[in-house]
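Homework help board

Subject: predicted structure for assignment chain

Our instructor gave us this sequence and asked us to write out the predicted structure in token form, then describe one feature. I got the tokens but I'm not sure how to describe them. Can anyone check?
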Amino acid sequence: MPCPNCNERGCKACGDTGYFKLTDCPNAKYIDHETKELVRFAEWFKKGIPPVAGGSLDQSARFMEWCNEWWKWEELLRPRTKSMTDG
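My token output:
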């Protein structure tokens, strides 16, 4: 998958290849509790249940930016893996 640190330009994290190879479950090794919680909130929001009562305008701008980025990555990864929040 494209390296999330350098956007395929090559960096220390990906060994200058531009690609990031997952060899372990990212849920267990790379993702902290706060990120897992954000993913859960983004999934709920996508289904119409926002973390803050109200609509899109009632959510923080940062949360909305994060959701949009997460949904882009989710679409990119969907053919290769199921959602982190599935089963």
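Reply (TA_rk): Your tokens look well-formed. For the description, you could write something like this. The mean pLDDT is 79. That's the kind of observation they're looking for.
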